[in-house]
Design brief:
21 helices, Vcp-like ATPase, Chain A, domain 2, 22% strand, five-stranded mixed sheet, six-stranded mixed barrel
């Protein structure tokens, strides 16, 4: 196997592709042209692949004890072997910069580069000392001095870039690595911080490791861990880290660095969350409950509010103890927002310079739609007098108190109440210098003192003592209306609002943390979302997804990932049509509108029958209509005769005889529960008392009982009949009626969705008496009581 890998001999020289064409190449990945793949296949060693394997039968002339037949058998087997050229896996290369003889190993990403060009990642360009600036067209240069190439991805636009940088690429297979020793370039690295990050970084971005190169691993808090690859095993210039168990050892560069690392770890352990010198742990919050805590400058303390009234305004109050300057951030946890709030990633924030911070979130705020939890975070900036960030170990924790309340008042009403509280008495007069309201009788004394000792800032209207430190350090921002009274507040303001910062996910640059936070929580392609179609937490826009401002994305209200993922199709569980996932919600709304618009089914007027008049499963020659008196074909069948009876007199006599027969002799069916039947009465009485009892009635009582039922029937054809019947029916119809009445009573008793009896009868009939399926049928096809079209959103 080793000889086959070493026999792959191939090398070629390529121009380095501009970085604009390879922005997504990670780690040590390169791209080569398709011609390079053809050359590699031509140079790959031949490998024998047998179509029949080792179980091939020997020829008839082969004799294992005869040496003359062994050579013939070998030639026969060789003719049936299939020889193929196969590239080794993984395919690795040795890159050499001929200008400075720098060497590094790399893995292949794909064969999609332009001809005579090789695409290098940013890591490989730094390792080979290839500057990105040399690809820019210098002032005064013409396109004839540079190589011109057409970028098809940019609409065929002609780009002019330098092509003087070349790299020699050698096919070189590296052994599987078993050990690597890394040396951190800075002291204080904690294995808990970088161990999982390093493993993921190597697995996702690297195929090889080269001794003497620098690895940069991004941390969770915009940190950057840098390591030097000092030693590898097996011994050599590099190793392959794919499909192998790699042991990683971290060794300090010097003894001083080791001592400093140990010191920082001990300090970090002493300031761990929950300790006396560390930040508070945070946790769950309850409405109206005041919590106190502390936060180390540069860190965050996270809280979460899970239960609140969705119809009232949320008001979060944060106050720094002993004039501590702390900041408050909030973000809802929903399918659109998955991260906890941070200084550069939040939805709501209070960056004011006041010691007390307040967030008021209206219940109509669109960010609260679908929010499961409200995440809150308390943060303190770590800055020196010069405005530079310092280590949290050099500062003391800042104490604060926080409380979450709810109010039915709106923000406008709260501001109006505050203005009313600042009103003055009727006899007061406003001072011209400090604008303070004072009584009329003391105005002269107040103005004399005020003009001698106080000074009014003409921009913000605040009053200061003339020789106070606050007035000497008072400042106003030239870019906005912010102001403060000390140098530290000005440095904090500049670092928050007027410092150039970039998005760690997509590289977007903006001025100020609020703008960056808005970008990271709205249109950043790397913002994590919970996809409603694949139910995975993914970035909201992939490499091949449409742009965030694509018209279809804006109109659909979906993210680019959901727009593409929602293009998959599925079968509607109601109508069995093939629908796209992103159109399923609208499709189901049409079903809901159709469900609410459906007329209630007409059921059989026989109170013991559980069938509808338009049942499809009933086989009968009698069509339900006005002639059937509102009875189904099963119930009306015994009453039907083929005689001319325009006034319904014969039908009336048949119904009367049917009632008399039921009450005098009974139907004789053991399942009968008809209260107007002798048999049914006996069944009811035996189930209640345990014995049959006497159910006999005289003819006079029976006629008195039956006559009101018959008189209520409308035998004329000018209007449909609405009077009920109490006729004995078959067992299936009676059982369905009992189930329908039970389902109708369930909703009224449980307080859930309640359905009218006709819909319950139709559900039981459609599901052939299956109780669970009948409830499901009602949910899909029947409108509930007090439900209208306005409830569909």
């Amino acid at each position: 196997m080793a000889r086959e890998q070493d026999s792959l001999q191939w090398s070629s020289q390529f121009f380095v592709a501009p970085p604009q064409r390879t922005p997504k190449l990670p780690g040590d990945k390169i791209t080569l042209p398709q011609s390079a793949l053809e050359q590699l296949l031509a140079a790959a060693p031949l490998r024998e692949v047998s179509s029949q394997g080792s179980s091939r039968q020997y020829t008839s002339t082969f004799d294992p004890f005869n040496p003359h037949t062994f050579a013939a058998e070998s030639r026969a087997r060789a003719q049936e072997l299939d020889r193929q050229r196969q590239l080794p896996h993984p395919l690795t290369f040795r890159l050499v910069n001929p200008k400075n003889d720098r060497v590094i190993y790399a893995g292949i990403r794909e064969f999609s580069a332009e001809e005579q060009e090789v695409g290098l990642s940013a890591f490989l360009r730094r390792a080979l000392d290839i500057e990105d600036e040399q690809f820019q067209l210098q002032p005064g240069e013409h396109a004839t001095e540079t190589a011109q190439s057409t970028d098809l991805n940019n609409g065929g636009r002609l780009e002019s870039v330098r092509s003087t940088s070349t790299v020699t690429v050698h096919a070189k297979q590296l052994p599987k690595g078993t050990y690597v020793r890394l040396r951190p370039l800075e002291a204080g690295y904690d294995p808990e911080d970088w161990k999982a990050l390093l493993e993921r970084h190597l697995r996702d971005n690297f195929t090889t490791l080269t001794t003497g190169e620098l690895l940069s691993v991004s941390g969770y808090r915009n940190e950057m861990f840098r390591f030097l690859v000092d030693r590898v095993e097996p011994e050599g210039d590099g190793i392959c880290v794919v499909d192998t168990d790699l042991e990683v050892d971290i060794v300090a560069l010097t003894e001083d660095q080791a001592r400093e690392t140990l010191k920082r770890r001990l300090e970090k352990a002493s300031r761990a969350p929950g300790s006396t010198g560390g930040s508070s742990i945070g946790g769950a919050l309850a409405l109206g409950e005041a919590v106190t805590g502390q936060v180390i400058p540069g860190e965050h303390v996270d809280y979460e509010l899970s239960k609140w009234d969705r119809g009232e305004m949320i008001e979060v109050e944060l106050e720094g103890i002993d004039d501590a300057v702390v900041y408050l951030f909030a973000s809802p946890f929903s399918s659109r927002q998955r991260n906890r709030p941070r200084v550069d990633e939040h939805v709501f924030a209070d960056f004011s310079s006041r010691p007390s911070k307040t967030l008021r979130i209206q219940p109509t705020n669109v960010e609260l739609d679908g929010a499961e939890t409200l995440y809150l975070s308390v943060h303190a900036f770590a800055q020196t007098k010069a405005g530079d960030e310092i280590a949290s170990s050099q500062t003391l924790p800042l104490r604060y108190s926080m409380r979450v309340v709810q109010s039915s008042s709106t923000v406008e009403e709260v501001e109006e109440m505050r203005d009313q509280s600042n009103s003055h008495e009727p006899g007061d007069v406003q001072c011209k210098n400090c604008h303070q309201w004072v009584p009329q009788r003391t105005l002269v004394l107040h103005e004399n003192f005020c003009l001698r000792n106080n000074v009014l800032c003409p921009q913000c209207g605040n009053v200061f003592q003339k020789r106070s430190p606050e007035w000497e350090n008072h400042w106003h921002c030239p870019h906005d209306s912010s102001h403060g009274n000390d140098i530290s507040s000005k440095h904090r303001h500049d670092s928050i609002f007027h410092t150039r910062c970039s998005c760690p996910g997509c590289g977007f640059e903006t001025d100020g943390l609020p703008s960056l936070a808005q970008h990271r929580t709205t249109v950043c392609p790397e913002k994590p979302i919970l996809c409603q179609f694949c139910h995975l937490v993914v970035p909201q826009r992939g490499e091949t997804d449409p742009d965030m401002y694509d018209p279809e994305v804006l109109l659909s209200g979906l993210t680019p990932h959901e727009l593409v993922d929602g293009g998959r199709t599925t079968e509607c569980h109601l109508c069995n049509k093939i629908i796209r996932l992103r159109d399923m919600k609208t499709h189901l709304r049409h079903h809901d509108l159709e469900r609410l618009s459906r007329p209630a089914p007409r059921i059989c007027l026989n109170q013991n029958c559980g069938r509808t008049l338009d049942a499809r499963g009933v086989q009968s020659t009698v069509t339900p209509g006005i002639d059937t008196l509102g009875l189904c074909s099963i119930c009306f069948g015994p009453l039907y005769v083929d005689t001319y009876d325009p006034e319904g007199k014969s039908l009336r006599r048949r119904i009367e005889r049917r009632y008399l027969s039921q009450l005098m002799s009974g139907c004789g069916k053991s399942w009968c529960q008809n209260e107007y039947c002798k048999t049914g009465k006996q069944q009811r009485l035996s189930s209640d008392t345990g014995d049959g009892g006497s159910t006999s009635m005289s003819a006079a009582k029976i006629l008195a009982l039956v006559r009101p039922l018959i008189d209520a029937i409308n035998f004329r054809r000018d209007a449909p009949n609405t009077a009920p019947f109490y006729l004995c029916t078959d067992q299936v119809g009676q059982q369905r009626r009992i189930l329908a009445e039970m389902i109708a009573a369930e909703g009224a008793m449980s307080g859930g969705k309640a359905y009218d009896l006709p819909w319950c009868v139709a559900a039981v009939e459609a599901t052939a008496g299956n109780l669970d399926k009948a409830r499901e049928w009602l949910t899909n096809w029947a409108p509930a009581k007090d439900e209208d079209k306005r409830s569909i959103r």
